[in-house]
Amino acid sequence: MKGFYNGRIESITPTEFASMIDHTLLKPDADYKILEKYINDVREHGFKLLMLPLSLLDKALEIAGKTIKYGVVVGFPLGNTSTKVKVFEAVEAASSGASEVDMVMNISLFKSREYARVLEDISTVVAEAKKKGVESVKVIIETTLLDDSEKIKAVELVSSAGADFVKTNTGFLGGGATVHDVALLYRASQGRIKVKASGGIRHALDALALIEAGASRIGTSSGDKLMKEFLELTGEA
Fold first, then answer.
1. Which alpha helices (H) appear in 19-174, and where do they start and end?
2. Exposure letters 136-168 (e unless 16+ CB within 10 A, then b)
3. Rounded CA gap, 128 and 143, in Å?
4. CA 21 – CA 221 distance, rounded (Å)
5. Buried b / exposed e across 29-60, counting CB within 10 Å, b at 16+?
6. Which of 102, 121, 164, 206 is catalytic?
7. In the 8-state DSSP scheme, what is residue 69?
8. Which one is catalytic: 167, 181, 206, 224?
9. CA 155 to CA 189: how far, in whole Å?
10. Of 55, 75, 144, 225, which is least packed with CB atoms within 10 Å of its CB?
């Protein structure tokens, strides 16, 4: 797809597009049959990884082993568990085979301007996860609940804490990723960390617009649909 990236790169192939997608299964009513379907999606399309709750990781490994990569959410979806609990989740996820962790920032503390405590919360999880071999830690800041100045401040904290990505939304609290928010986070990051767009991304054109705005990763429960639409757009279906 030539010329879509606003000058950052000139083209994107289906393989590149797929490698930017975290295929996400976090619905509370997901059963093992749905899990198998999502595993097959990741295998078929070559998505970056399968994003799961910790409770499904063992079953996913039983089904697919290490033929695909896994990400696990931590402190999900509200972010208001203690740092010790988040660390325990992250360490267990890493020890069980997860290569990436997506943690939720403590939004209550952030809104209370307890920035030192927010920084400590994130940096502690990052440090302990990395000790266990986690490749990337992403921090969900829930942009829907923040104004623009707060989003910029959150990027500063996430970057200072040593995380690898700032992530827009959980998708559980209404709202979702927007081009405005992704562009804002991308500019604020100044290349120090990457941006993951997540929340309500259900179409390929929406994902491409978010990538053009600065997202390096897309979190979606509709990865298979995005790939189908992408192949249709590029004439490779």
1. 32-45, 54-64, 83-96, 107-111, 115-131, 148-160
2. bbbbbbbbbebeeebbebbbebbbebebbbbbb
3. 25
4. 10
5. ebeeeebeebbebbeebbbbbbbbbbebbeeb
6. 102
7. -
8. 167
9. 6
10. 55
Other beta carbons within 10 Å of 112: 11
Place of tokens 């990884």: 49
Over its C-alpha atoms, the chain yields an Rg (Å, rounded) of 17
The verdict on whether 167 is a catalytic residue reads yes
Alpha-carbon span 100 to 175, nearest angstrom: 24
Q: 54-64 and 32-45 are packed helices; what angle lies between their axes, rounded to 10 degrees?
A: 60
Amino acid at residue number 99: S
- pLDDT tens-digit readout, 12-22: 999 999 999 99
Amino acid identity of 236?
Answer: E
pLDDT digits (tens, 9 = 90+) for 58-100: 999 999 999 999 999 999 999 999 999 999 999 999 999 999 9
Residue indicated by tokens 């393989």? 15
* pTM more than 0.85: yes
Q: Determine the Cα–Cα distance for residues 236 and 78; give it in Å rounded to an integer.
A: 40
* Candidates 86, 153, 194, 196; catalytic one: 196
Give catalytic status of residue 196 as yes or no. Answer: yes
